[in-house]
Amino acid sequence: MVTAEQLRLRIEAEIGGDWSCTNGHGCDLRQCLFEPEKQLFEDSDNPLWLLLEEDPVSRDGYKVVYDESTGMFGLACRFMSGRNGYLGPYGDTFLEAFKAM
Predict the structure, then answer these.
(1) 27-33, long-range: CB within 8 Å, 24+ apart, which pairs?
(2) Under DSSP, is residue 92 helix (H, G, I), strand (E, B) or coil?
(3) How far is 46 from 58, CA to CA, in rounded Å?
(4) CA 98 to each of CA 1, 15, 36, 82, 86: distance values in angstroms, whole numbers, following the listed order
(5) Which of 33, 55, 59, 73 is deepest in the core (most CB within 10 A)?
(6) Predicted local confidence at residue 92, as pLDDT
């Protein structure tokens, strides 16, 4: 079982001090990344760790998640129903999923 601190340290190690890293949506890692939090998502059989939100104020846009049952990072978004839905796996690393947004 993975902890929030283990995930945070893993992500910080991947970033490696390059906080200027961004993606096609122009996400600012310092602004969009937050303490990992387990949540339920539609289209996922188990809780996922929510790691980053494209817009942390409105909570809209894409989200980067981690599925500890598969060890994969993936993407999610808010569905029209207002609930968060899992879109699927998008990489073995946080940065792979972040760049896939």
Answers:
(1) 27/52, 27/54, 27/98, 27/101, 29/98, 31/56, 32/56
(2) coil
(3) 25
(4) 23, 11, 15, 22, 15
(5) 73
(6) 96
Tens digits of residue pLDDT in 49-62: 999 999 988 888 99
Provide the b/e sequence for 56-80 (b: ≥16 CB within 10 Å): beeeebbbbbbbbeeebbbbbbbee
Place of tokens 């490696």: 16
pLDDT per residue over 15-37, tens digit each?
A: 999 999 999 989 999 999 989 99
Q: What letter represents residue 51's amino acid?
A: L
Q: Which residues pair with 88 in a beta bridge?
A: 75
Residue count of the chain, please give it.
101
Contact 23, 33 (CB under 8 A): no
